[in-house]
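User: Okay, second chain of the day. Same drill as before: sequence in, structure tokens out.
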Amino acid sequence: MRLGGNAMVIRLKDTAKLFGITIIACCAVFVCTLFLSYNIDLAAIKDEIVTEAGTEMYNAQVLMGRVIAAVSGGCLIATSVVMLLFYVKNYISTHGKELGILKALGYSNIKIARHFWVFGLSVFVGCAVGFVMGYLYLPTFYQKQAPNLQTLIPALKVQFHPLLTFALVGAPTIAFAVISVLFAYLKLKSPVLDLLRERQNVKVRIGRDGKENVPFLKDLRGVTLRSKKSLVFFVAFSAFCFSAMVQMSFSMDELASETFAVMVLSIGLILAFVTLFLSLSSVVKGNTKTIAMMRVFGYDDTTCSRCILGAYRPISYIGFAFGTVYQYGLLRMMVSVVFADIENMPEYGFDFKALTVTLILFVLTYELVMYLYSRSIKRRQERYAGVGKYTGALNYKKWNNAMNKSAKIRNLRAFW
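Assistant: Same drill. Structure tokens below.
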């Protein structure tokens, strides 16, 4: 995206980093497309339902669709907003010199910020893909969501709803584009010198002014968490998705259908791994200087990984606990409130077996990912060390040539 013909503001390859937002938006719209379309098509045959049992099942299905679309879709949209703001802020922080030069040349904040609308393209791609996938899956979803409904409710026909398409694809794209522009406008109000020097207004204190005798490594973990609060949210959210969706899939096989359980499990694993990989990649990249300084002071790779990556380990287990409580509360509400008047509804209780299996899988998966990123830290430091040696050799060579040249000049002057 060019500004004034020559000044580059945002390249399309910069928006490729918003892959996480695309995935989350796709999952959110996919879920909303299924249940909102189901509710709309179900409302079209309301007059054909003549039995009392069918009316009760109709009301329960409509309420279930609203609750799932509101809770699941709302949580995913809120997460997308947080991730979008994080990427806009990160872009401005890493491209502060270019943006500061544009401001110094006389471009106004709004003129620069309006080009941040391209961040909404990631939302458009995710929403469009999620809507198409959901619409194509609707016939199967209608048949397998609850096979026992065929005797109570007439068969549903898939209908296309243009207003729903705009609400799930067009409206989120416009909203996220506007949010990107407004947030960029607020962040660009920083002084030009702060942008040119890439100075970040982050107040982080190490040692707490001597009031508490806190060990350096322990205090470093706290500083790592406080400096990137948004990454704390993403790590907790990834564990939350893994815990909630995997445990919920065990119960969905009995409460709904096997297809529904597979869908819940797939969405949960996709969200969990995407957010975890993006957040840990940002952690490793954002703490490169800190890790390099720790290596200078003699700390080994294991200590560096334990202080930087290990700081997020308690956060992940807290997210896992919240996901456990969330899935139990949601399913309990579905059984006790939404389907309270439905006969032959199976009883639901807390599944300790599902919790045990999910916890073991989570610990193994999370520790494996942490180990891989620890290796990534080691490779990154080795690469930087190699670059440093190469750069040092080049600098020494330049210095030696300059000294030889100056010596020749001095000899020539002495001769004359």
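The beta strands are 2-3, 7-8.

User: Thanks, on to the next one.
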